[in-house]
Design a protein that fits this description.
By secondary structure, the chain is of the alpha+beta class. 23% of the residues lie in helices and 46% in strands. The protein contains three helices and six strands, in the order H-H-E-E-H-E-E-E-E. The protein has helices spanning 10-19, 23-27, 45-58; strands at 30-38, 41-44, 62-73, 76-87, 90-103, 109-115. The protein has a six-stranded mixed β-sheet, covered by helices on one side. The chain is globular and about 40 Å long.
Length: 125
Amino acid sequence: MFKVTAPAQMNETFARAVNSRNLQAVLSLFEPDAALRIGDATLRGHQAISREFETLLALPGAMTSRNNFCIEHGDIALLRADWIIAHDGQVIARGNSAEIARRQPDGTWLYIVDHPAGAALPPVA
């Protein structure tokens, strides 16, 4: 499993976990009751979010995810990433995520909120 010791490493580590095609590696980056926003639904907990990640892991290609910013405040960090999944030179999916991570008692960081498209939503009318 992957361990993150600084929140600015979260997005790159998430991409490495996705590229490993190991669901447990992906889930190991999330607190057990983490929230994942997909469309208009918020999924909570490993069991609920694992179904969404199984779909992600089934996509061909490789993910790249780069921090746009990481703002730490004590044991909480707000992140924004620009990510892309490409296969054979073709873009399969891309987005701009918004996430919140929390420092754990052992000093590692885990996601508590993930919104894969949260930083790319259109303005509210």
